[in-house]
Amino acid sequence: MKDSIARAVAAAAPRPLWLDLADATGRTPEGAPPVAGDTTCDLAIVGGGFSGLWTALLAKERDPGRDVVLLEANAVAWAASGRNGGFVSSSLTHGLANGADRWPGEIATLERLGLANLDELEQTIARYGIDCSFQRSGKMWVATRPHETYELERMCGLAAAHGRRITPLSADQARARVDSPTYLSGALDEEGYALVDPVALAHGLRAACERLGVRVHEGTPVTDLTSTPRGIVLSTPYGRVGAHQVALATNVFPSLLRRLRLFIVPVYDYVLATRPLSPEELASLGWAGGEGVSDCGNQFHYYRRTPDDRILWGGYDAVYHYGNGLRPELDQRPETFLKLAEQFYETFPQLEGVGFSHRWGGAIDTCTRFCAFFGTAKGGRVAYALGFTGLGVASARFGANVMLDLLSGTPTERTELEMVRSTPIPFPPEPVRYLGVELTRRSMVAADDRGGRRNLWLRTLDRLGVGFDS
Known about the structure:
Layout: H1 2-10, H2 17-24, E1 39-46, H3 50-62, E2 68-71, E3 87-89, H4 96-102, H5 107-127, E4 139-143, H6 146-161, E5 166-170, H7 171-177, E6 185-189, E7 193-195, H8 198-211, E8 215-217, E9 224-228, E10 231-236, E11 239-248, E12 265-274, H9 279-285, E13 292-295, E14 301-305, E15 311-315, E16 319-320, H10 334-347, E17 356-366, E18 373-377, E19 382-386, H11 392-408, H12 418-421, H13 432-449, H14 456-464
Parallel strand pairs: 1-2, 1-11, 2-8, 4-13, 11-19
Antiparallel strand pairs: 3-7, 4-6, 5-6, 9-10, 10-11, 12-15, 12-16, 12-17, 13-14, 14-15, 18-19
Helix pairs in contact: 1-10, 3-8, 3-11, 5-11
């Protein structure tokens, strides 16, 4: 069995499925030209992922006359925005429990704003005719260990206490939706989750931005940010961009504001995708509802059907490399792919022998409070949003609105939130950073194996309100 699993993983293409699907369907747009010479604008946005794209689009919708330039070092959707599972969550706080623990006085507002943000995201996709396989199909959590059943009961109770509808499921009810012998119970959120082809969404947002007049430049890394009496100057290899205001949407990559680098660590997440399943193979799963699925461990899996009937299967390992390691070769990790494949076949033994078409990885911008933080610099002329910790597909849109609010200088409901006004605890310097992350990761594995019991280290982090997650 292990040899056949190794062959199945080795045969998979070492690149993101979503980028290949865009190429195969002829939907990959032509590359946008790099900056050529010096230029000026009202608003410059650094980063062409979801955070930067939403900032550009919303800036033009707020003020169609605003001159907006978007600068991307590589290509739109090349990094995290094109490597994720396509789960679109309404949560702005990496889950209701995390938000309720950190901001109990405003969690009702955060939940309301999160659901509104998801609604508006859906409306924007429809308004601009973005073909990205968006479906508001919900998400099912499943318990695969006895103690996780209790965790799901707590989740449903917490949701009910805050006016959210998450439905508890028995083992039979969960298996009636997606058939796996590993399921002990489940919970279904039908309003707060959607699924999307993330690359198609990013490409559609880029096209919408360009139609509104945003100047998009790919292949244009920004190497320096300088404040002058007249504004902000961004240096690139091909020219300088002078801007009245700047929005930094650089995600996991080292920020142009050096002080922010203390708050983010890159955590690598890995994904497999099967070949397209036959009608008979799909029938063996009974997966007719289209919902995404996640189990409940500290080291958890997330999985879903794709628009062309593959299963995307990711998560579990969350790997930090010493010194904030962030290199292309880290996108591939054979030991993790083998582990994921073994766990896939354990979850779905009826699919034994189904091969994998793609394997890939990418870095997540993790911070100690597990959700985004925001702020300004350079006299309020530079805004930033980062630290989305794996739930940025939708919350990046909220972050874009926060950055634009902050740059406007006018208080809004968003900017008055304690979540927006506060910052996470920074990570310690190396080697303490690496040792702390490794100790946390191993403690989380041990908790999964010991009925959820958290050791002294994890309980101490809980009391301090800090941690490490993907």
